[in-house]
Amino acid sequence: LGKGVGVPVKLLHESEGHVVTVELKTGETYRGQLVESEDNWNCQMTDVTHTGRDGKESRMEHVYIRGSKVRMMIIPDMLKHAPMFKRFDPKFDPK
């Protein structure tokens, strides 16, 4: 991919404006609208439901998550058709 950002980071940026679920390395999850993301996976989210490791849920209006704390992120299913995946598709012929 050269010197640019990789596919996972591009996908993260494509997820902006959509509802995502972020799981932290601590086991906590945050589900809400992704407002902004950075190449280092720092994320701003609004209208968030936080689920603790004990399963207790709480609502938060705004959350900022440090990228180094992210274990995984669940993004909208519709993004599997994003143009960045075309070059990995064997049916895709750029010629």
From TrEMBL:
Q: What keywords appear on the UniProt entry?
A: Cytoplasm, mRNA processing, mRNA splicing, Nucleus, Ribonucleoprotein
Q: Where in the cell is it found?
A: Cytoplasm, Cytosol; Nucleus
What high-level taxonomic lineage is stated for the organism? Eukaryota, Viridiplantae, Chlorophyta, Mamiellophyceae, Mamiellales
Which species is this UniProt entry from? Answer: Ostreococcus tauri
A GO molecular function held by the record: RNA binding
Please give the GO cellular component terms listed in this UniProt entry.
cytosol; spliceosomal complex
Q: Which family does it belong to?
A: Belongs to the snRNP core protein family.
Primary location group: cytoplasm
Sm domain residues: 7-79
Entry-linked Pfam families: LSM
Q: What protein name applies here?
A: Small nuclear ribonucleoprotein Sm D3
Q: Which SMART domains match?
A: Sm (SM00651)
